[in-house]
Amino acid sequence: MRERLEKLGAADIELRIGRSGQFDVTVDGTLKYTRSKTGRFPTDDEIENLVPG
User: Fold this and answer.
1) φ/ψ (deg, to 5) at 27
2) Domain segments of the chain as ranges
3) Alpha helices, DSSP H, located in the chain
4) Which pLDDT tens digits describe the chain residue by residue (53 residues)?
5) Fewest 10 Å CB contacts: which of 5, 10, 31, 45?
6) Quick count: other Cβ atoms within 10 Å of Cβ 47?
């Protein structure tokens, strides 16, 4: 996931240990995706949409 976001140009990526099953994507300090709302991991298309183009 980190590598894919870096290739898309995300400048500030942070991976942190969280609660069991937690999966959040924060790009440049803004929460862009959280598994707690969707109940699943993001698709490849969703990952590409997380980073401003």
Assistant:
1) -115, 125
2) 2-50
3) 2-7, 35-38, 44-50
4) 777 777 777 666 666 666 677 788 877 788 888 888 999 988 888 878 877 76
5) 45
6) 18
